[in-house]
Amino acid sequence: MSAPRAAIAVLLALLVIAPTAAAAPSTCAVVVAELPAQPVIARRLEVRATELEGALTTAFLGLVMFASEANLDVVGPPLARYRKRGERVVVEAGLPVRAPPRALRAGLKVLTLPAGPAAVADHAGRLDALPKVTRCVRRWVAAHDRVAAGPAWERYLTNPMTTPDPAQQRAQVVVPLRR
Q1: Cα–Cα dist 127/160, whole Å
Q2: CA atoms of 42 and 60, how far apart (whole Å)
Q3: pLDDT tens digits, residue range 49-76?
């Protein structure tokens, strides 16, 4: 095969392979971090998947208002710990606090994120891609002979209302690990 024909063949192969490779990411950048136990004020939500974004926004606003009224020190970004995904979603919308409150408003609870190792992946981009990131982290956990120690959660590092450009949005996916 002549050099120009070989170059054309390589170019065609790259054009055929590249979209497939780009469409299905094969890896995600996962680090194992040692996390401290973290108290969280939370509201449990059970909603249709199509209602999740609005329900989380409403829950986070309510949690921020409660934290302010109760003089709680918020020590991190809002988070969502997923108990069930699918057509109906069961999730705990939470706000990490320095110490649990003495009293809670109806519908709120205190939960503690577990201390110990966790697989953590940073995400930049559209927040609706986070379920894919979670699946990627779970594949990483299995590939590295680790075992999840409970449900995953997402930390929302940017607020989509104040950072509407999806390219600027940031989040983390956290999967707690057994020792």
Answers
A1: 8
A2: 9
A3: 999 999 999 999 999 999 999 999 999 9
